[in-house]
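Example (one chain per record):
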Amino acid sequence: MDLERYGIHVRQIFRNPSPALLYESALRHERGTAISASGALVAMSGARTGRSPADKRIVAEPATRGDVWWGDVNIELDEHTFEINRERAIDYLNTLELLYVIDGYAGWSTAHRVKVRVICARAYHALFMHNMLVRPSPSQLRHFGTPDLLIINAGAFPANRYTTGMTSTTSIDLHLSRRELVILGTEYAGEMKKGLFTVMNYLMPKAGVLSMHCSATADAGGDGGSAILFGLSGTGKTTLSHDPGRQLIGDDEHCWDDHGIFNIEGGCYAKVVDLNEAEEPDIFRALRFGAVLENVVYDARTRVVAYEDISLTENTRGCYPIEFVPQVETPCAGSHPRHVIFLVCDAFGVLPPVARLTAAQAEYHFISGYSAKMAGTEVGVTKPEATFSPGFGGAFLVWHPTVYSALLAERLHRHNSETWLLNTGWSAGPAGASDRIRLRHTRAMLNAIYTGVLAAMPAVTDPVFGLAVPTACPGVPRDILLPRNAWPTPQAYDAAAGSLAAQFRDNFRRYESHASTSVRAAGPSGAVPP
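Predicted structure:
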């Protein structure tokens, strides 16, 4: 492996080191690292404990400029500035005594996988990407060749905020034609993961494949039935995909091609705030030797992690190889999904805990991508905020959202997949005035979807959102299924429902010109119950 082609001349480079070597190196060279009582590597990302979406840039160059959905998500950067930031990153890396290189694949499908090379300065980042990429065999590593994507992580060194186009000392720059991602000014490991996902969101639709921000599971009975769960960070994608009754395909990023679905990643990146073994045993037990615990608080004497302690950040994370989950499906791929589920965390407590969607409603809610942006998932977010993110992952889309929605609609129709909306937030009042829906109730609703029980239950039509809401579900109290009945007063619910419906309509106006008449009519009405 010749790194001189990238301008790197560091004397000591660890190429695809073992987790044991990365543990040793992290403990020796990085402040704040430790080994937890369970054996996971504890690491700190510094000042940035979440993604920095306002600092993400895509180079506007002739070959790809016409493909990109430019705006607040994909902000333009000129090629000259990219070269400045890239050289700044390389110059910094060349001042160090030791670097790490990790090679791996994005995607379990041999037809669509992307070869990725990561060059970084921290052992914790190397272990993180060792876990998150699909790990090549020794033979594949020997013949890895030239990567399809290069990630240059110089996150410990700041961007020059006086450089044209910079808004802070953090900069995440992507050049689509050169397939290079350069990171400055942030050591949050999630920037590498989501930068790679952004690249997949460009390459896959170009090949006629739907890339998705979702988790996926398969029936444990072996009949091959699968399900996908869309959702933004904090809605429960990882938690709900770790289901002892199902086989895990993946927790966050997948693709849907003509053969079925496949995981993009080789690992999981779970939120661990308030983690406990009783409710989330698979995640709890996966955080052992080889895993990374990011920005958690632990007792220096006992090395026990205090998962309830959010004094550093609410966005505490755990990263581990997917094979650490006992019921994992490998290779991480599945058949065309029988069930497609949109997870939302409704901080207003308006949407029902579960509802079945028509085909038009499925496309409408996919384009809308409503949820609440939870505290800690992004820099500056300290309390829940309502957000609309197309495709339930708008921050990572490259093409216009309707490119992804058209691919989804075609697949839902072709494979006759059932579509559901599942609210993992609040239903008896807004956040702060009521309790969040219990995990065991959400799991019961999911199980009823998987078994077909919920589709057979009687349902009523929500008068504002037009959703088919089941009036009963095994293992779930009837009083929470219809939020208007669960609120302290119907009048308070009606006001909140009317406000949220107006936000849906305002948001969708940006996409109306690209939507069919049936999809435009699938949104909430302006009426509230009498």
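Caption: The CA atoms of residues 112 and 207 lie 9 Å apart.
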